[in-house]
C-alpha cells in the first residue's frame, strides 16, 4: 500500500469535507425535476428523464412555458401557494403522468431565486392502510415509559411501514461518532446493535443537510444519476441547490460506502434534539426498494412522534433528578440549627451524594479541614488538587473532566484511584475558598466499531482522495483512562450543593468565632459582615440568595397558617440559558442573570420578594396573592423580561411555574408543585407561565 505525507492526507480529508453534496447537478431516477424562474414563466433546467414521466422531450420542455410541461392548473396553484417569503417550505400537489397515466406527487420548493418541482409516482395509494398502521404504532409509542423500549418500538414501527431489511436508531456523541441504540431486522441480516460508526461516515456538510431536510431517501444505491439539462442555470450560471428536495443525486463516495456495506437502498430520518441533531433513524434494504411518498412521510411522522415522547421521558427523568437534589438540599438546610462544620456535613451526607451523583468518592478541602468519603486520593493529594483548582480557575465556577490523565491533575491522581472529577468552589469571600470534589472510577469499555474507523486514501484523476472503508466486520477497541462523563444537570446540581455547603460551613464558622473570639470584636465584626453578605445576598445578582428567600418563605408560610393569609410562589428559569453560555461565554451569561434579576425586582410589588434559587432559577414570594393575582404577576414578569434588550444576546425569555399555598402544605411540597408547573410551561413551548393545580 503506498504511503502519503501528512499534508497529502490532511488535504484529502479537507477535500472530502468540501464535497458539494447539495449541488450534484443530477437527480436519482426515482422521479423527474423541472426548475423554473421565480415568477413561474420560464423553464430553466430539467432532468434528462423528463420524457419517461411527463411525455415531453428535454428540448420541448426548455423551449415552452412551464404550463406546457406541468399543466396550467398546477402552475396556477403553485403561483398562489409558493410566495416569495415562504423560505424552505415545501408544497405538495398531485398530477397525472402524461406518459403513463399514473398519479404523481409534485413537490415544489424555492431554491434561491428559483422554484424547483420534483415529480414522483405516488405508487399504490394505500393511504388508509398507512394511516391505520401509523395510528397503531403511535399508540404503542405513547405507552412506552423507558427510552430504550421507546426506541425499539420506533424501529419496529418504521420497518413495518417501509419494509426495509434493517432499521436502526443511531445517536451521535459529542464528537459526532454514532452508535446504534435500537435495531429491527429481517431474518438472516447481521446485527449492528451497539456498533459504533466514526464521524467521518456522515461528514459535517451532510449532517447540515438534515437541518434543512430531515428525510433522505435512496431507493437504489447503484442507480446511475440523471444529469440536469443544462448543467447550470442559464440565468445565473450557478448550479441548482437541491438541499430541500427528495431526488438529490447520491454522492459517489456515499454510493461506494453503501456498496461496501452491502446496502442497495436506504432511508434516513433526522432525530433533532433541543439544539442540534441527536441522531438518525437509518433504514437499509439489501435490494433496491422504492417507497411511495406517503410511506416516506409516514416514517418521518413516526420518528417525530417518537422524539416528542423521548424528550418527554428525558424531562421526566431530569425532573426526578432535580427532586432528589432538592431533597438533599433540604436535608442540608434542616441541619442549619445544629451548626455543623463543613467536614461534619460531608461525613453525614457524603454517602448519599455518592449515590445521587454516581460517584466513587467525595472529598472536601475547606480552610484547614479535609474530609473524605468513599474512594478518594489521600489528604496531601486532595490539597494539591484544591490548590491547582484555585490557581487555574479564573472564575468561581465548576471544573470537571472524565479524563483526568489528560489534565495536569493526572500527575497526582492515578487512573487506579480515579479518572473523573467534578469540583465546585466553596466561596465565602475572595480570601477564603474551599472545594467540594466528586470523583468517579475508571470506566473500562470495549467499543465495537462497524469496521476499523478509518478512511482509505487512493488516487483518482491524479488527485489523492479519501474512499470509504471496505470492511464493516466488527473491530473492537478497548477504552481505558476515562470515567462516565458528567452531565450538565449534575454539574449545575453540584454547584447549588456547593453553595449550600458554603453557607452552612460559614454559619458554623461564625458561631464558633462568636463562642471563642467574643472579645476580639474586630475579627467578630468582620466575620459577621462576611456572614451577612453570604447569608442574605447573592454575590452575582445582588438580590436575595437561596438561604434568605427560603427563610422568608418559611416565615410567610407560618404566618399564613396562623392568620389564614394567602401565599403564592413563582419559580422560573431562563429558556435555553445553556446556549447563551455556550455561544457567548459565562461572563455574558452572568450579565444576563444580573440584568434579569434587576428587571424582575423592579416589576414586583413592594410586598413581594425575589431570590436566586440556584443557577438560572429564581423564586418570587408573593404575599396576599389569589390565583388570579399570581398569574397576572407572572404575565407582567414575562412581558417585562421580553421587553429588555440583553445587549449581544438580544431577547431572553423565561418559563414560570406558579403555585398557591394550600393549608397544611409544607414548603418542600409547595416548591415541588411550582417546579412541576415550570416544566409544564417548558413542555408547552417556553416563554409562558403555568399554574399548579
Automatic annotation (TrEMBL):
<dbReference type="InterPro" id="IPR013515">
    <property type="entry name" value="Phytochrome_cen-reg"/>
</dbReference>
<dbReference type="GO" id="GO:0052621">
    <property type="term" value="F:diguanylate cyclase activity"/>
</dbReference>
<dbReference type="InterPro" id="IPR001294">
    <property type="entry name" value="Phytochrome"/>
</dbReference>
<dbReference type="GO" id="GO:0006355">
    <property type="term" value="P:regulation of DNA-templated transcription"/>
</dbReference>
<dbReference type="InterPro" id="IPR043150">
    <property type="entry name" value="Phytochrome_PHY_sf"/>
</dbReference>
<feature type="domain" description="Phytochrome chromophore attachment site">
    <location>
        <begin position="146"/>
        <end position="308"/>
    </location>
</feature>
<dbReference type="InterPro" id="IPR050469">
    <property type="entry name" value="Diguanylate_Cyclase"/>
</dbReference>
<dbReference type="Pfam" id="PF00360">
    <property type="entry name" value="PHY"/>
</dbReference>
<protein>
    <recommendedName>
        <fullName>diguanylate cyclase</fullName>
        <ecNumber>2.7.7.65</ecNumber>
    </recommendedName>
</protein>
<dbReference type="InterPro" id="IPR000160">
    <property type="entry name" value="GGDEF_dom"/>
</dbReference>
<dbReference type="InterPro" id="IPR043128">
    <property type="entry name" value="Rev_trsase/Diguanyl_cyclase"/>
</dbReference>
<dbReference type="InterPro" id="IPR013654">
    <property type="entry name" value="PAS_2"/>
</dbReference>
<keyword id="KW-0716">Sensory transduction</keyword>
<dbReference type="Pfam" id="PF00990">
    <property type="entry name" value="GGDEF"/>
</dbReference>
<dbReference type="InterPro" id="IPR029787">
    <property type="entry name" value="Nucleotide_cyclase"/>
</dbReference>
<dbReference type="GO" id="GO:0009584">
    <property type="term" value="P:detection of visible light"/>
</dbReference>
<dbReference type="InterPro" id="IPR029016">
    <property type="entry name" value="GAF-like_dom_sf"/>
</dbReference>
<dbReference type="InterPro" id="IPR035965">
    <property type="entry name" value="PAS-like_dom_sf"/>
</dbReference>
<dbReference type="InterPro" id="IPR003018">
    <property type="entry name" value="GAF"/>
</dbReference>
<feature type="domain" description="GGDEF">
    <location>
        <begin position="565"/>
        <end position="693"/>
    </location>
</feature>
<dbReference type="GO" id="GO:0009881">
    <property type="term" value="F:photoreceptor activity"/>
</dbReference>
<keyword id="KW-0675">Receptor</keyword>
<keyword id="KW-0157">Chromophore</keyword>
<keyword id="KW-0600">Photoreceptor protein</keyword>
<dbReference type="Pfam" id="PF01590">
    <property type="entry name" value="GAF"/>
</dbReference>
<dbReference type="Pfam" id="PF08446">
    <property type="entry name" value="PAS_2"/>
</dbReference>
<dbReference type="InterPro" id="IPR016132">
    <property type="entry name" value="Phyto_chromo_attachment"/>
</dbReference>
